[in-house]
Backbone:
């Protein structure tokens, strides 16, 4: 089969590679001038530091198949995400752990004491949390919720937390030990040479032709099948209306030596306009010593307008109704498969994206083998 893949992020690259290995001829286009989508990394020309151009990406997974897959294409360096948070002029560790709790409450609780204390603070009248706010109040109670989650979430998503799904907060652990690892997955790391080098390696296959700076809409229509990893609503010319996304804006800060002394610092207070600052050399501890100057990005979240890059699907109630209409259109469209964060309008992490891309490629190939149109 001759396949067109729209988008050279993880979804498009991984599915394209799998299909190329299965004997198909794959053309992958991306309208940007680089691969890896919003996971793109590049050396900052002024400091030489490897920068996560579209914000911090730390690879973490429990899926052994996906971990083995990324290790095929990059040397995964050990990295543990340890996030700090500024709240009311003080610095805490995230995710909320025993140190955070003791510092916030000016206490020296043991794990059992902290658990009992937080359970007493937590709202016990909320059964199953139906939104982000209820999930926060049920988990940690009023004070911790307002300090660490409410302000940050309003800035990040631009809406009241009561309108957001509880699942967003379920991404974060709550611990009654001093373990401040942001993730609870078994495997965690960052590719030694960055994500774009990893995606370059994935795309390096004789049956793959890559065309950067090319819109899929401008390609000829004679491919046997299209894999679309761009925004789902864009494929249909927004005929049903626009699905809402959040976009991000980054303001670089450059200085001699250290800027903040750690990789990620969240700013949870509503009065501070940015959500977080990422100092990039700390994502590559194996090469930190090589740089005299440092670069950090102050990160701002905003509504995604027509010309902006979509980052996070908002998935409010209206979006879900709209999504259902687009999913119906997608199902009725033969010869096109939608995948990825944008193509399925879902808040997917890198590992889930890769797993789904592999599954999708295998399922498509199997269907074609049996002569079924997909
Ligand atoms: N969050 C928060 N305070 C924080 C960090 C996260 O309220 O200091 C909430 C916020 O709503 C965020 C969500 O938890 O969108 C998920 O956080 P995560 O760090 O997983 O977000 P990502 O790195 O994907 O932007």
Residues:
């Amino acid at each position: 089969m001759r396949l067109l893949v729209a988008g050279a992020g993880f979804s498009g690259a991984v599915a394209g590679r799998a299909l190329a290995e299965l004997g198909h001829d794959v053309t992958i286009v991306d309208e940007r001038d680089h691969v890896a989508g919003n996971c793109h990394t590049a050396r900052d020309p002024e400091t030489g530091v490897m920068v996560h151009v579209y914000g911090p990406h730390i690879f973490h997974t429990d899926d052994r198949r996906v971990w083995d897959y990324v290790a095929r294409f990059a040397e995964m360096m050990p990295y543990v995400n340890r996030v700090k948070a500024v709240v009311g002029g003080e610095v805490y560790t995230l995710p909320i752990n025993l140190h955070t709790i003791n510092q916030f409450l000016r206490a020296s609780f043991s794990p059992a004491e902290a658990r009992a204390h937080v359970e007493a603070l937590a709202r016990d009248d909320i059964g199953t949390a139906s939104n982000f706010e209820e999930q926060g109040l049920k988990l940690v109670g009023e004070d911790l919720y307002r300090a660490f989650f409410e302000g940050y979430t309003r800035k990040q998503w631009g809406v009241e937390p009561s309108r957001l799904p509880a699942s967003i907060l379920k991404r974060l652990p709550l611990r009654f030990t001093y373990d401040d690892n942001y993730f609870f997955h078994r495997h965690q790391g960052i590719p030694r040479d960055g994500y774009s080098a990893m995606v370059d390696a994935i795309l390096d296959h004789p049956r793959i032709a890559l065309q950067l700076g090319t819109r899929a809409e401008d390609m000829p229509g004679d491919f046997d099948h299209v894999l679309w990893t761009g925004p789902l609503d864009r494929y249909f010319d927004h005929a049903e209306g626009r699905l809402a996304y959040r976009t991000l804006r980054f303001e670089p800060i450059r200085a001699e030596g250290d800027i903040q002394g750690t990789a990620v610092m969240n700013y949870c207070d509503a009065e501070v306009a940015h959500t977080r600052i990422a100092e990039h050399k700390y994502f590559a501890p194996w090469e930190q010593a090589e740089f005299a100057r440092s670069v950090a990005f102050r990160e701002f979240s905003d509504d995604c307008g027509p010309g902006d890059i979509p980052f996070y699907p908002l998935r409010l109630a209206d979006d879900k109704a709209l999504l259902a209409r687009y999913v119906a259109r997608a199902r009725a469209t033969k010869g096109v498969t939608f995948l990825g964060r944008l193509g399925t309008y879902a808040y997917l992490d890198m590992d889930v994206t890769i797993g789904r891309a592999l599954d999708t490629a295998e399922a498509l190939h199997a269907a074609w083998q049996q002569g079924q149109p997909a």
Q: What stands out?
A: The mean pLDDT is 97. The first strand starts at residue 2 and ends at 6. The longest helix spans residues 132-157. The chain is about 30% helix and 20% strand.
